[in-house]
Amino acid sequence: MADASKKRVSGDGRERCAWASGTALYTVYHDEEWGVPNRDDRHLFEMLILEGAQAGLSWSTILNKRAGYRAAYDGFDPLKVARFSKARVQRLRDNPAIVRNRLKIASSVNNAQRFLEVVDEWGSFAEFLWDFVDGEPITNHWQTMAEVPAETPASKAMSRELKHRGFRFVGPTICYAYMQSTGLVNDHLVSCFRHGEVG
After folding, report:
1. What integer pLDDT is reported at residue 77 of this predicted model?
2. For residue range 90-111, what is the model confidence (pLDDT) as tens digits?
3. Residue 195: which of 14, 12, 13, 6 has the closest Cα?
4. Which of 8, 120, 186, 197 has the fewest CB atoms below 10 angstroms from its CB?
5. How confident is the model at residue 6 (pLDDT cuts 50, 70, 90)?
6. Is this prediction's pTM over 0.85?
């Protein structure tokens, strides 16, 4: 990421987290989605798949392929993804619009199945997920991106529980990125215009 100690003021006069100035996609994602508390199961499933796909890659790679993922994964309908056949999985591996990693693709189908098991038990995935933060988003007050952790006790607990339930590509760092992207935590810098809006 760019030097987090420097202010990032865009042409519209609003200061943002330093990483948001990379591309237009980054800026829109930062301004409209990142850190916004979300309890919609379809969106939570989408971000679970995308965060797992991002492992070892840049987030810009995933944002650039997001439309491709939505098409390839039937709008991120977990019911449909959970039933993907071997032939459908092979088509995913041949699809240049997504990350064609064999293990990540296999994990996405597995995670859809595990996702539905959680829904059956909890009533919704949101109920299960938000329990890790006692139902309310955690608002942090970081001055620089250097202060933002890669993982926390909550993300470690989430990772342990998801792995116990058979999910894959859900290490504590991925889980923390997931918490950020779905608004379980607000990690916008205090200088960022979105910090107060999200909070």
Report:
1. 98
2. 999 999 999 999 999 999 999 9
3. 14
4. 120
5. very low
6. yes
The helix/strand count (H/E) of the chain reads as 10, 4
196 by Cβ neighbours in 10 Å (0-12 / 13-18 / 19+) ranks as exposed
The yes-or-no verdict on residue 10 having pLDDT over 90 is: no
Is residue 76 within a helix (H) or strand (E), and if so which, with residue range? none
Would you call 51 a catalytic residue per the annotation? yes
Which domains are present in the chain? 17-198 (1.10.340.30)
CA atoms of 145 and 53, how far apart (whole Å): 23
Region 181-193: what's the mean pLDDT?
97
Among the listed residues 59, 130, 142, 178, the single catalytic one is: 59
Which one of 19, 29, 69, 73 is the catalytic residue? 29
- Is the CB of residue 174 less than 8 Å from the CB of residue 51? yes
Please tell me which residue in 19, 34, 46, 51 is annotated as part of the active site: 51
Cα(151)–Cα(137) distance, rounded to whole angstroms? 16
